[in-house]
Specification:
Elements: E1 5-9, H1 15-18, H2 24-29, E2 32-34, H3 36-42, H4 45-54, E3 73-80, E4 83-90, E5 93-98
Antiparallel strand pairs: 1-5, 2-3, 3-4, 4-5
């Protein structure tokens, strides 16, 4: 396994790490937006697909709304306690992938 796997969403983030130095808030504040292609190149496909399914997205746009076609989803790269992480912002919730 070389890519990042799903770690946690901001909704379930450990309370003591939300405002801690290098924690969730710092990760969000220092993030940069990346392309979907870059995001997918850096995360484990199975981990990503599981989240995509859990969020109710169709595998392809002929079967319904796919994550790739959802204008409200954005992809980001940042640091969490000094380690590079990638995350999806979906409906104002961050879904973080880490190694």
């Amino acid at each position: 396994m070389t890519g990042a796997t799903f770690y946690c969403s901001c909704v379930n983030w450990p309370r003591e790490d939300v405002s801690a130095a290098g924690g969730l808030c710092d990760m969000i504040n220092h993030a940069r937006m990346i392309s979907r292609r870059t995001f997918l190149a850096n995360v484990e496909p199975d981990s990503y697909r599981e989240l995509e399914t859990d969020l109710g997205y169709a595998r392809n746009s002929r079967s319904g709304l796919s994550m790739a076609r959802d204008w409200a989803v954005s992809y980001h790269k940042s640091k969490l306690h000094g380690e590079t992480v990638y995350y999806i912002r979906h409906s104002a919730i961050e879904y973080v992938f880490a190694k």
